[in-house]
Predict the structure.
Amino acid sequence: MEKAYRLGEVEEIIAGMEQLAEVPDDIMESDEDYQIVISGWQVHIPELGLNLHEGIYCNYDEDEGGYLPDFAITVVKEEGQDEWIYYEQDGFLITLANYLHGKTNLDLGQLGQLSCFIRMPDGSLPAEE
């Protein structure tokens, strides 16, 4: 059975879900200068048909010979799509509000009340903490 959360509260809930750290991350985009790594799990918002991922923007460091984390981002994808449609350096709610600006009549408070679900790569839900 899926457990619905409120979008405005889900980041705090995710922070306490240790099993999400065990889900392998995905490389969303990579170039010789940077790499964007996103969570293998997602937050699904059925009403909007969108999925949110936590991510890290990494810069290539020649001294270290690899990519080093620079800043956290939130990535927006359409449901069922692999390609990202938007990302920014902010949390779920603010990133979503900025992406939807001018596309919907929902204000920040209304967005925070939307139902969402935490989904693992296989479509299942994580065990309750």
Remarks:
- The beta strands are 5-6, 26-30, 34-38, 42-45, 50-61, 66-78, 84-88, 115-119.
